[in-house]
Amino acid sequence: MASGAGERSTEQIDDYETLISTTDVELLKGAWRNEKAAPEILPFEEALVKRAKEQIQLMEETVDDFAESGHDPLIASLYQMDLDRAQYLLRSYLRVRLQKIEKFMFYIWKRDTYRNRLSIEEEKFTERCIRDIGKHLEETVLSKLPENYQSVLKQSVISEEDDMVPEPQLDTFVVAKCEKATRPLYLDGSRQSAGFDSRDDHFQMVPGDLCILRYRPFQEELMSGNISLV
Amino acid sequence: MHGRKAYELVKELASGEKGHPKIFNTELFERVIEECNEHHNALQSLIRIMQDEGLEVQTARNADRYGALIHHLSLIRNKRCLMAYVYNRAEIIRDLAWKVGLLHELPSGIQEKFSDSEEQYFIDHSKSLKLYMSQLSLDVNVDIVPPKDPYIKVRVLEDLGSGIILSDKSANFALHSMHFLKRTDAEQYIARGLMEELTS
Known about the structure:
Subcellular location (chain B): Nucleus
Family (chain B): Belongs to the GINS1/PSF1 family.
Oligomer: heterodimer
Structural class of chain A: mainly alpha
Number of domains of chain A: 2
Number of strands of chain B: 3
CATH architecture of the largest domain in chain A: Up-down Bundle
Strand order of the largest sheet of chain B: 2-1-3
Keywords (chain B): DNA replication, Nucleus
Main location (chain B): nucleus
Strand content of chain B: 5-15%
CATH class of the largest domain in chain B: Mainly Alpha
Largest sheet of chain A: 3 strands, antiparallel
InterPro entries (chain B): GINS_A, GINS_bundle-like_dom_sf, GINS_Psf1, PSF1_C
CATH class of the largest domain in chain A: Mainly Alpha
CATH architecture of the largest domain in chain B: Up-down Bundle
Radius of gyration of chain B: 26 Å
Number of domains of chain B: 2
CATH topology of the largest domain in chain B: Methane Monooxygenase Hydroxylase, Chain G, domain 1
């Protein structure tokens, strides 16, 4: 924090910036960006989506009021544009999630951590997806194969694990932006401990830093909000 | 040769233009399934020979066991190819469900490219999407591109008449007529190829 005469204005700017960065639109934008960039499905932002929906509804009413009262059409159209953008954001956020579900439904369904990240509606959707594709595959391929080879998830009965399930590529690279100063990080994601002190490949990110990182080791940093994806 | 037919099947899939599926290759597909069953028969007869000789299938190290293994692996490979073929086509179908999910069946022009089961899958998946949207009371299949302007200019490509009422007005959507519409209203018609967006 600066001192003396500058103090007041920096404080004001800080206040303004925190205010702007915590509006729901900004939060939704952040969630949307993370969801778009992450290879796996992230926890559903239930409260945020609920608030966004309410605000969109409110805005729709405002726009309707404007249209009825014959207010300045320019203002009305500006509101409409803002509304459209907010709606796009919300729809796109939900859409990206659904598309991930479509792609990795079996993978998501059999793991509780992933299943708990879905909203109730998404869970129902996943269930239906699995049922539909299961039925389709069964009818087209599986029912015509020898008995021991009919599983959707396994290559044959002797497979010990599910080896026919598409999985998200977690080792892909993402562009991460630092939000909060992080503890020293290692590129392979290992925790800082006494044994690692001798290693010199750690680094620290300060807010605003951009790094290209492997996704898997930094999942936790993303979940805790220390970094965001771009 | 083992797995050759299945390979052809997958290759056909990969060589196709993205998002434009070819006709479901029933003939080749059935041929691969047949091959699977042939492998299975061969596999079982080999196992039977080994059992007749009193050998343990898991631990024996003779020619018959390795023969059986090859048949097993060929079968698995064929299965994977078949599944990949159907699964990747299913992805295209899901894509279609997103784009034209408002319809209750596949557009007639491309219907013949899909098998009956695939058609049913399209209907089922569209229903799932619709159910999700109705639970949320929010259409997620509009607004595909980020909006620049709330209104866009469109040209009608198929005579739609005046039966359509959009959220703020109704108009006569005759063939080739041009309109200035709300983006959200126009998008579904654009997706179905009934209108096109005019960019200046």
